[in-house]
Design goal:
Chain A: One of its GO terms (molecular function) is glutathione transferase activity. Chain A: It comes from Hibiscus trionum. Chain A: It holds the Pfam family GST_C_2. The complex is a heterodimer of chains A (251) and B (228). Chain A contains ten helices and four strands, in the order E-H-E-H-E-E-H-H-H-H-H-H-H-H. Chain A is an alpha+beta fold and 251 residues long. In chain A, strand 3 and strand 4 form a beta hairpin. Chain B folds into two domains: 81 residues, Glutaredoxin, CATH 3.40.30.10; 142 residues, Glutathione S-transferase Yfyf (Class Pi), Chain A, domain 2 (Up-down Bundle), CATH 1.20.1050. The chains are: A alpha+beta (251), B alpha+beta (228).
Amino acid sequence: MKLKVYADRMSQPVRAVIIFCKVNCINYEEVRLDIAKRQHLTPKYAEINPMKQLPAIVDGRFKLFESHAILIYLACSFPGVADHWYPVDVFKRSKIHSVLDWHHSNLHPGPVTIVRNTVLAPALGRPFNPEAAAEGEKILSASLAKIETVWLKDNGRFLLGGNQPSIADLSLVCDIMQLELLDESDRDRLLGPYKKVQQWIENTRNATNPHFDEVHKILMKAKEKRQNQRLKGENHGGGGSDMKKPLVSRI
Amino acid sequence: MKLKVYSDRLSQPVRAVLIFCKVNGIEFEEVRVDLSKREHFSPEFSEINPMNQLPAIVDGEFKLFESHAILIYLASSYPEVADHWYPADVFKRSKIHSVLDWRHSNLRRGPVTIVQNTVLAPMFCRPFNPEGAAEGEKLLSAALSKIESFWLEGNGPFLLSANQPSIADLSLVCEIMQLELLDEADRNRLLSPYKKVQQWIENTRNATNPHFDEVHKSLKEIKEQLQK
């Protein structure tokens, strides 16, 4: 029975798992769930993951959730996966664990908080909340500063001085890619100060293309749709960056 | 050169690492860093951990921070550590990773938010914040329900139906022990709906005593000081 990956590509950790599978030629079936339609909250999905979050996998009879746990499981269980993704060397591996753990409490909340309270608010049935978004920006900036000065301190192309990507690079870059949902000016404002971070994102993208771009297409489509809707709104008298003005509900 | 563990026993993840070392007979030097005096922001400690958080370890020339990463490193590097702490079996190990990751986003914020907005507020020059504490209580209850109904679903004494503790049990129980800083009445109110959780805390304590009680003594001492 083929590996199943329960996925909504709007989710950053889902994208990390899918890109990992594609890059490593791991045969899988993508079972699509639409978070905006609350399909992750069905009793049927609760059988797969009682925490009702994505991603989750089912490999034979083995079920697993939490993207870092999944990436590690796949790296250890599928023989085609090159060592650099999750090195056998205990020192390198421990540093990767350190990045992944730090990510949970530091980087991950940043982009999530910004987009949930601005561009994705309508899709999630939430109010537009500029103060919460501003908090998210602070969290993001603090984390990007740490990535720039600590995790990218050495001169490798990837985190921790690596010359090849690990699951940590994939996980963190996919999180930052969520900013693609914002207007380009906002995204540039947030990422602009961090030159090493920008280069590292590009390195990770190049190392995992064409899969990286293919999996991230959904973000571009979502952004285009939103921009078209805004243009329609402007034709009726609205306008301005989504981060700066409250969205007028069309419901 | 002996393993060094940078520590303030007020911190839940620090206690998990200390208890793990003691239970497994791992020799270490405990280097005390006082959080209430902001010693974790000193230039010396920033060299050890640029994120300025505890715990951190130095093993020879190898530095590491983040308690889960540390626990896994110790379990993998010290041959005296029994398999049940971090099993070699990829399926069991993956489930442990899943619990540890879940803890970050779910359990951790509960006890931290409650105590930082109430009993520990003066120590860290923060205002007393009952709304913040109430939010913390909601987070904690949601997390405890998940532990009760899912992570303790089978009939084992420990998480994931295990018969012996893993690093996940130690990490999560130390987190919940932070509630010892509260009044007994509040602590009982928060924990009493969860019978399996209470039993599991006791099981973990018994499996790691006398070290568990010894390391948690600081919480009792801090609580007495705060009550004065």
